[in-house]
């Protein structure tokens, strides 16, 4: 993989040196397009056939580079928090997405597909989206973000279960030279970035960027641990460091992209009672490269070929071992042999995607595609370390997988008249398992969850890899130039990730969703747009955690709801507001971390002549259930325990809800550069609300074989008021 990346860098740099510079041409921003033009603007659905916004089956949400600048978004997760019907949850390690029928914190898979210029970013271990500083793309390199709700299985396969998030990056001509950036914020957070972008005389376009972030983070007080640690203070345990490199090169019909990100993030919350105050950090590394070629095979036939490769490395470290007692008592490990733990995960993948689009039949746009993906390396295990940091002779089960998937897709867009358009399609995916080795618990000795290091292996996947179909159908009625009505039906599936497979395989099945949605888009004059949708989802064989903390593998969930949004702009003012209501029912229970109501408000305004612009944002998150420990040790006198912030009441309580919260953010940004200098100042959580997120399962439920009582946390503290300053200096070439 690193050989691929080095080749990509050398190719791009060599081409750049051989070219001569020319002035860049600017592209119009979506905010400058009137409503009539916005209806006709393209949704760049990951290098598939670009569909007109008015003809897409879904109610698409878009955040542009101008929005990112106006409202001071720093991560992709913050962008998603501004979108209709979406929210994120953080455990102070990662951000996890939430939406119409998902949102369990700690659920790495996410059940939505995240694409960067057509490249699926999820790794092949846990399927995580990486919405925070662990993500591949720097926020200042994003041109726009699109969220397409509903199953996208026809185009994108089994990962697009509840929707698709597509990130479209900027081009070199958007910078037209070298930009140096410096950023500083609360909690001793600093970032520096250097970006070079240029479109050359022969049309070649090059974008190259490097950024680095360092953050000390916050100190937290946990009264819950005061009895065991003396003060219950986690000091210097929230730090973060990351580095990103991104390359994008385009010439005629060819495009090449490559990226690298490495992030280390400390966590103030341990996974075990005795781990408080000891080091716990995640260490993620991702690399990718993709090459795309678009071509015409005649006046009615176009093609697109894309090859890609990626890898992911996980080297998380914990300065304690919650399975120490199990290792010592059942596996015969001497005391001190298992003082710490390190996750060792590695995934690598390659693939090719081919698509043909035929328009030679009147009234039809036919699309035929084929994709092949190879996953030659999927390896993960927990490594036990001695007190001196060396690897011990006692490890956890080691899984090594090798799989591949090929899929075929077909779609047809039919013009049924002047005002009617139909969309039908289907996809067939066939996964295949190759080499699979697993040191299974209890083989050869009946030791639960742990074995001495051994070469004993067995076929580790009991779960059947079955072929899957993903159909869809939609109908669009363009009643007039200002009114569009859309109806859609689709099905999609999601196979368990390798990280889910080694445990409870007898209960794991492919999740499947069937959806129905009705969308209305109505323009009122040239200034106002109303977007409304109602939907009904039926999920079967779902993995989920209910409000009592129980995990289910064969659940039936019926999420349904409605979303409305109003957009307008006049002069230099812009306004966007949305409300989402949804109900996610399972029999006699409610889903954890599933708020009933979500509200979003964004107001962009001029502040000082044409030099400064203000962005006021408010986000409402309704109450939601936490995840509760059922198999852990709950103190007999719960009222004697303190919550994370020292509030009265137990740490764990039946049917306990986290209260609703409204967060207000304000950003001042420069509209024009002064002698090449521009910048922005953001205040997040302006009202300094003290609020919490639902804790992941790792903090709220028992771990088998743990050496101490589980952490009974149902919430994780989030940031209070914080300030972020950005300065940019542009050097034209």
Structure commentary:
The chain is mainly β and 733 residues long. The protein has one domain (2-258, 276-324, 331-732): TonB-dependent receptor, beta-barrel domain (Maltoporin, Chain A, Beta Barrel), CATH 2.40.170.20. It has 8 helices and 41 strands. The protein has a 24-stranded antiparallel sheet that branches. The protein has a 5-stranded mixed sheet with strand order 3-8-9-6-7. β26 and β27 form a beta hairpin. It is globular. The two termini are 33 Å apart. The model is unreliable at 1-55, 440-459, 629-655 and 700-710 (pLDDT under 50).
Distance between the termini: 33 Å
Class derived from helix and strand content: mainly beta
What's the gyration radius in Å?
26 Å
CATH homology group: TonB-dependent receptor, beta-barrel domain
Fraction of residues in H or I helices: under 10%
CATH architecture identity: Beta Barrel
**Overall pLDDT metric:** 80
Q: Kindly report the oligomeric state of this protein.
A: single chain
The main sheet comes to: 24 strands, antiparallel
Strand element count: 41
Q: Please name the CATH topology.
A: Maltoporin, Chain A
